[in-house]
From TrEMBL:
Peptidoglycan polymerase that catalyzes glycan chain elongation from lipid-linked precursors. The chain crosses the membrane at residues 20-42. InterPro entries: Glyco_trans_51, Lysozyme-like_dom_sf, PBP_transglycosylase, Pep_trsgly. It comes from Methylomagnum ishizawai. SUPFAM superfamilies: Lysozyme-like. GO terms for molecular function: pentosyltransferase activity; peptidoglycan glycosyltransferase activity. The gene is mtgA. Belongs to the glycosyltransferase 51 family. It is a single-pass membrane protein. Its main location: membrane. One of its GO terms (cellular component) is peptidoglycan-based cell wall. This is Biosynthetic peptidoglycan transglycosylase.
Length: 239
């Protein structure tokens, strides 16, 4: 006599959902780790912020929009440009592990006063956001930003983080990276930016659409002067 094979018990819906979710999370982790690891050596062909800007321009039917982005290697960026963004955005860059908790606390206290919101993001966090994510202040976005920041700090040396940041940061409407900013605003290469020019570019980083390097306001001028003073006080940063 033939014995009937025991039937495989049906998987419940909660079990299926758990397996699907587990596979999704595992796939996300593998994909993101592989992407960050590859970008340790390869220049990013484009970033999420660039894609969003292009999509918004298409939706608004902007015929004047052009994406200006050109990668330049570490040695093709002036020391002044490297020093300027550190002085302006993250003076503890070489000391922290991706998060400046003192700056985050100060920003949180400032924001409780109801004044203009201030961020406490490091260059590592800004690189993670600009490269992989989207604008916003939701807990999900901040959680993803923290995740990618940890990955970047684990996989890349500080010099690589700074190199990528300078190449993908927005310096104006459709202007991404220090190479295109140097060409458009000063008619020179990123390697030849001087102290004041680099400080002017760094001065617009908080909001490069409102703050314009091409037509600097009095506020941008004051911020530029402050950044120059900070650069001189910090001295040789080893970059």
């Amino acid at each position: 006599m033939f014995r009937r094979k025991p039937s495989t018990p049906a998987v419940s819906w909660p079990g299926r959902c758990f397996r699907w979710l587990r596979g999704l999370v595992l796939g996300f982790v593998l994909l993101t780790v592989a992407s960050v690891a590859l970008l340790r050596w390869l220049p990013p062909p484009i970033t999420s912020f660039m894609l969003i800007a292009q999509a918004e321009a298409i939706a608004a039917r902007r015929t004047d929009f052009r994406l200006n982005y050109h990668w330049v290697d570490w040695d093709g960026i002036s020391t002044s440009a490297k020093d300027a963004v550190i002085a302006a955005e993250d003076q503890g860059f070489f000391e922290h592990g991706g998060f400046d908790f003192q700056a985050i606390e100060q920003a949180w206290r400032h924001n409780q006063t109801g004044k203009r919101l201030r961020g406490g993001s490091t260059l590592s966090q800004q690189t993670a956001k600009n490269l992989f994510l989207y604008p916003g202040r939701s807990y999900l976005r901040k959680g993803l930003e923290a995740y990618f920041t940890v990955l970047i700090e684990a996989c890349w040396p500080k010099e690589r983080i700074l190199e990528v940041y300078l190449n993908i940061a927005q310096f104006g409407d459709g202007i991404y990276g220090v190479a295109e900013a140097a060409r458009i605003y000063f008619g020179k290469t990123a390697a030849h930016l001087d102290e004041k020019e680099a400080a002017l570019l760094a001065a617009v980083l908080p909001n490069p659409i409102v703050l314009k390097a091409g037509k600097p306001s009095a506020y941008v001028g004051r911020r530029q002067q402050w950044i120059v003073r900070q650069m001189r006080q910090l001295g040789d940063l080893g970059v």
